[in-house]
Amino acid sequence: MKNKSILWFRQDLRIHDNEALYEAIKWNSEVIPVYVFDPRVFQSISRFGHRRMSGIRARFIIESVHELRAKWREMGSDLIVRVGHPEEIIFQLAKQFKTSLVFCNRERTRDEVYAQDTLEKNLWTVGQEMRYARGKMLYYTQDLPFPVTHTPDNFSTFRKEFERIIPVRPALAIPDFVSPMMHPYDPGEIPDLKSFDLVPCTEDQVYHFAGGELAGLRRLKEYVWAGVGLRKYRAKDRSISDPFFTTMLSPWLSQGCVSPKVVYHEIKSYESIKGTNENIQALLTELIRRDYCRLIAKKYGNKVFLKGGITGKVSESRKDESYLFNLWKEGRLGIPILDAGMKALSATGYLPFPLRNACAQFLVHTLKINWQLGADWYESNLIDYDPASNWVNWLVLAGLLPDSAEDKPLSINFLTKKYDPQGKFVRHWIHALDKVPDIKIFHPELMDLEEQKKYDFIPGKHYPKPIVTYN
Hints:
By secondary structure, the chain is α/β, with parallel strands linked by helices. The chain contains 18 helices and 5 strands. Helix 4 runs parallel beside helix 5, helix 7 runs parallel beside helix 9 and helix 10 packs across helix 15. The longest helix has 23 residues. The model has no long low-confidence stretch (mean pLDDT about 90).
């Protein structure tokens, strides 16, 4: 039976491999696509005092919505855009257009679940229903070798359940045709950063991401098929300053501009021609990790946001916690590689995973600070923020999941020698160290008086002395 329905775009800002879009077009003669900018996300302050979204991520999303609207217009339809609470706005649109269904890709974490559940209850009052699809995972839940409630807590165990057992389904095709909206409508204006009291960001070109499906698919092709991309994904000589150090696909994956299935099949296409290697397996493992985080978030619900996590182990807060946390987030620890990382995060919204993980480990295991503060800061600043991936990864790092493996001690010297041996990344972000010689770039506090005079650098004055002794 053919009906009229609303297609609610959320964190699935793409036309390709979009199950909710596919199902809406399949079962309805008229599809009304909608995107709602929720001020609770774009403007609110977290309980820890941070903006929930930076201007960098907001800009990326706004660009992605602009491109999504352009695609719908190319297909002869349009994208309705509103600002407000989705559960209220879409309910009003459903009554206005007299639809019968609302299609959307299901989300799994607290705030997103609240919006979709409330909307569903509202729709019931007027005899309408929700139809959920899955848009963020590599695998379909019905293909899992276990129910979601039995998801292994340990990632290594989880991965073994998947690898070589569960096939990844083909990506869904881009629709050939969509019916134009027949009912008169107001498309609405796409807001700018000022609408959310966010100022335009001057982003450093080390990490710059253009929002939208086209840019994401272009980066995927570039990375997989470039000679210095996938072929050297885990190469030992790769510097963190290298634009191909990682795939840098995470911003497009987090907002659903690129489907994980499309990434998977592009990698497998490369593998069919070039043969398999450890780089391919490592990258596929990272795609599986995203599914793991989403399933853990579904399994444990709001517990993934609690201080005691799943285990309930709550450590006492330090009296100087606020002071130490501010040093960490502002890049004033006196540890060059970590300080450079936190400055890069604030300026660009991005940090490669090894350094992102190292900064988080240092906060939790060396400074002994509440992990929630770090997770909340990452939520505020990351351009690739995804609720499940961010909070579950922090939970694992803090050892607050059952069967969490104990973290190995972090060697900062090893980290710097491996990923920034010439100090290029550090010098880019910490200009006070520009003149410091290579041999002392990671321990400027060890410069003797003669060196301090020669290079016009005084530890503790031009750059902080390290807050702790480290190796």
